[in-house]
Design a protein that fits this description.
225 residues, mainly alpha, 11 helices, globular, ATP synthase subunit a
Length: 225
């Protein structure tokens, strides 16, 4: 039972199938009609308004001294994660954001770039960030250790948070789907309502986790400036 349950997260052992499964990360972009990019529509305007709102919010988090194009990477990160989260809700489509292979690949390089940039260009600020203002002198060595550990585990927490939330929701959907054939017809309707409600909840989780990942990455970037 456990093997079948977690098999929905297995990208397959075949090299050919493995490449096709991971291609789902970008496969949906190929299905977008060219007219979406060339001709304005309601969906295009709605998506552009969302991106503009995110740009303004990320710009505020980065500070007034940041470059106007500095939010592009975080808006793109939000779009990529949101797209893959929603793609995983469709049947028979591999959920790439449920694997640390993808989430850690997104989080770790960003964190490394922020740390390298901060320690090279703002060394004094990075040292000062290890000791919060107003810390007693006797507690400073402990605060340095605590702040260093909390800083080092940031990419791991970013990656695990996204993957764990995607796995949890998909496991619940799989469990409800597997119990369907073994129950009476009277409970099937209740089970169907529960699956629809859970699917709506998973859609909300997909949006929230994409937003959380992008916002936390923006905050980590703002700390090194």
């Amino acid at each position: 039972m456990m093997t079948n349950l977690f098999s929905v997260f297995d990208p397959s052992s075949s090299i050919f199938n493995l490449s096709l499964n991971w291609m789902s990360t970008f496969l949906g972009l190929l299905m977008i009609p060219p007219t979406y990019w060339l001709m304005p529509s309601r969906y295009n305007m709605f998506w552009n308004s969302i991106l503009l709102t995110l740009h303004k919010e990320f710009k505020t988090l980065l500070g007034p001294s940041s470059h106007s194009g500095s939010t592009f990477i975080f808006v793109s990160l939000f779009s990529l994660i949101l797209f893959n989260n929603f793609m995983g809700l469709f049947p028979y489509i591999f959920t790439s954001t449920s694997h640390l292979t993808l989430t850690l690949t997104l989080a770790l390089p960003l964190w490394l770039c922020f740390m390298i940039y901060g320690w090279i260009n703002n060394t004094q600020h990075m040292f000062a960030h290890l000791v919060p203002q107003g810390t007693p002198a006797i507690l400073m060595p402990f605060m340095v250790c605590i702040e260093t550990i909390s800083n080092v585990i940031r990419p791991g927490t970013l990656a695990v948070r996204l993957a764990a939330n995607m796995i949890a929701g998909h496991l619940l959907l799989t469990l409800l789907g597997n119990t369907g054939p073994s129950i009476s017809y009277m409970i099937v309707s209740l089970l169907l309502i529960g699956q629809i409600a859970l699917l709506i909840l998973e859609s909300a989780v997909a949006i929230i986790q994409s937003y959380v990942f992008a916002v936390l990455s923006t905050l980590y970037s703002s700390e090194v400036n």
